[in-house]
């Protein structure tokens, strides 16, 4: 019996050395893996001809991306006004949708002349934060209040109804094309406010990180308590085995 317990203690030491590296790996991945997917302006490729949608977050289906691109290309041919859509998964630390969009707008269109007939709408899909930047020629049709409504209302309405990104960009595309074609502004979509009865909200980034930390703490506690419990069991059994 005593020999068996000695073997248990030897295994206890091995288990501790196995658990602790595992815990550290989980801790590191939980705390630092998230920023690895952040996107900065420098990671967005230079604009190429006939590129109308840059879906870095991969939330728009290929069919809808092709449909939107075709419509925006036709708008450019008919009016000279050009619209680009950009999606990213997560922004770099300290970046906002407005600062990101402005920087990307200036990267793609570095001069006032190049910016004049351009509009750029972006969203980051972690926070669903959006922004739109327009050039001076576009502003003559797409007033700032309408542009803001497109980003804050037209784009957001389908997202509040279940992260329907395809519908969001189709609606935004239709509204922008109408306005930039000289047609009356169709306005934002009419929405019916729904009452949330049970909590089915999407977890925030902070909640996900909190869950990862909770798992790490739990594993650390287990790595400490299990060997201690084994030790006390050994002490309790030892006198009877000697007897």
Describe the structure.
The chain is of the alpha/beta class and 243 residues long. It has two domains: 2-32 and 204-242; 37-180, Diaminopimelate Epimerase, Chain A, domain 1, CATH 3.10.310. Helices cover 57% and strands 9% of the residues. It has a four-stranded mixed β-sheet, sandwiched between helices. The chain is elongated and about 90 Å long.
Short description:
By secondary structure, the protein is of the alpha/beta class. It is 57% helix and 9% strand.
Query: What is the mean predicted local confidence, pLDDT?
Result: 81
The Cα radius of gyration reads 28 Å
Q: What's the level 1 CATH class of the largest domain?
A: Alpha Beta
**Amino- and carboxy-terminal Cα gap:** 12 Å
Largest sheet: 4 strands, mixed
Shape: elongated
Number of helical elements:
9
Structural class: alpha/beta
What is the CATH third-level topology name of the largest domain? Diaminopimelate Epimerase, Chain A, domain 1
List keywords for this structure.
243 residues; alpha/beta; Diaminopimelate Epimerase, Chain A, domain 1; 2 domains; 4-stranded mixed β-sheet; elongated
């Amino acid at each position: 019996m005593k020999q068996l317990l000695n073997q248990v203690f030897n295994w206890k030491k091995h288990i501790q050395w196995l658990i602790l590296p595992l815990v550290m790996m989980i801790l590191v991945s939980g705390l630092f893996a998230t920023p690895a997917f952040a996107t900065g302006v420098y990671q967005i490729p230079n604009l190429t001809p006939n590129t109308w949608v840059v879906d870095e977050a991969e939330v728009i289906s290929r069919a809808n991306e092709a449909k939107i691109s075709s419509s925006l290309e036709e708008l450019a041919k008919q009016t000279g006004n050009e619209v680009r859509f950009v999606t990213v998964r997560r922004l770099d630390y300290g970046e906002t949708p407005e600062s990101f969009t402005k920087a990307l707008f200036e990267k793609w269109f570095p001069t006032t002349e190049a910016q004049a007939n351009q509009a750029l709408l972006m969203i980051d899909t972690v926070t669903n934060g959006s922004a739109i930047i327009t050039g001076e020629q576009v502003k003559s049709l797409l007033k700032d209040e309408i542009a803001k409504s497109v980003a804050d209302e037209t784009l957001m309405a389908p997202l509040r109804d279940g992260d329907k990104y395809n519908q969001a960009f189709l609606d935004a595309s239709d509204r922008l094309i109408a306005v930039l074609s000289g047609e009356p502004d169709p306005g934002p979509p009419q929405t019916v406010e729904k009452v949330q009865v049970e909590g089915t909200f999407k977890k925030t980034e902070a909640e996900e990180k909190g869950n990862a930390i909770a798992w790490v703490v739990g594993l650390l506690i287990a790595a400490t308590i299990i060997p201690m419990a084994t030790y006390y069991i050994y002490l309790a059994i030892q006198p009877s085995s000697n007897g």
